[in-house]
Design goal:
The chain is mainly alpha-helical. The chain has helices at about 10-30, 35-45, 55-70, 75, 115-120, 125-130, 130-140, 145-160, 165-190, 195-235, 235-260, 265, 285-305, and strands spanning about 45, 50, 80-85, 90-95, 100-105.
Length: about 300
Amino acid sequence: MRKFKLNVTSDFLVNSLCTITIGTGVLEFTANTFLNHYIKSYKEAFKNGNPIKLSESLKKRYDEVVKDIKLTEFQMAFVAPFVVDSLKPTNIGCINTRSGAYIGIPNYFECNSVDELQSLDSEEIQQVNINPEYSEQLMKTLTLSESAKKYAIAHELINTDNIRLYIQAVTPTLVLMPMYAVGHTVFSSLPANPSSIRAFAFFIFCNIGMWFYYIIRKNINDYYQHDTDTVISEMGDEYIKGGLEYYDKLIQRNIILRNILPNGDRIYSEKGDEIGFFAELAFTYRKKHLERNLKKLAEKNTEELPL
């Protein structure tokens, strides 16, 4: 039997890198369009082997937010809520595609007190109770007002009504094109031997490309997170105050988790913001942004008062 022998050449490495890079964008777009129902099933909360159905109170709250955002009937047909297996709301997909979007709402959003939270049959809530010293403090961070819950749902809804998915899908290719052009020019000027020189240059360019991709992707996410907060601020002071409460509770929760998790100081900062490559836009910054918007709204309402 003949053994398969792979001849690894520079062309093979470059072509493989191009395939992986372009494939990353294609995979992200596919996962959030054609396969978004599979992603939804993966993130969905289950009980006794069956998905947890959205309660009447959660469905009513979701409908109120949809009405406040003023989604058209056409847009409403392409978005659906579900109960997510997480302590934070989430969104999957994009309203502006034929596959639509899903909005994940935590089950504890139907609770209004610590007692109701403790009686809720949820694995996420049970994990909060593992540490008795901080369990009560963590429970308080999960107790949100009506306006805070509506803000969190509105944030996920509005975040699906943009072209972010399309931009992120083409970003890998846009990064690849200049890196390929510059890399090809540099490689042509390098000697063929020793091969370690070209290997080192290839390694450097790969890392530079990855860093460019990471920076661009993070800035895209941060821009749309900031833009979503701005759009919600235009919906009135009720939503702004709800957002301030929501971010304040998230910050408090992260500070507590920083103290009780084994590597909490590597996940959350002292201020309560997320740390890491895939961290969201700082909650402290988003809270200050809403505070500025609330102040501007108050000044605007004061100026409009009749003398």
